[in-house]
What we know:
Layout: H1 8-26, E1 31-34, E2 37-40, H2 44-53, H3 55-75, H4 88-91, H5 98-112, H6 119-155, H7 159-197
Antiparallel strand pairs: 1-2
Amino acid sequence: MKNLFKSPRGLAFLGLMLAITIIMDLTPLGMIPLGTVSATIIHIPTIITGVVLGPVAGFIMGTSLGIVGLIHALTRPSAILDPLFMNPLVSVLPRMFIGVVAYYAFYGISKLFNKSKFKNTVSTFIGGIAGSLTNTGLVFLMLYLLYADKVVELIGEAFGKILLIVFTTNAVPEAIISGILTMSVALAYFRYSKTVSK
């Protein structure tokens, strides 16, 4: 969406997604139990914002998500790696690109499927997956670059094995859930926008 700061609807949507992110961080709503693991879904409002409102809004929401994560690590550390997220290079920087990547994945796929009636369905789903994998990939890249030895020490496994376990048990389910939820919300928003603009 162009002219984000001149659009009351866009600003309201951005504010709503930020509020949902904060609520998800403060409650168990940010996690979906999947048997032995839990899928983190707190990044999904950022992905949806990027897909619906564009890369600038996605960047703003990603930065906000990172700040929420930083505050969480500083005030309520609970997981074994939370102290490492007190560094903004781990908690904030990777999250800044979630909505941006989600938007460009959505945009690129929508151009690829331009003549298909499933264009929006496929592109929003892929955008959701791309945003989720961006979150996991960039966070672990920063953990590797800054704290590889510390991560290995805390978890007691080689970094490569940790990465393999995370991607096979958490990242894939999170990406699929992100794709489904992004697709559902974005398609509903696009339909609503067409109705209102008529």
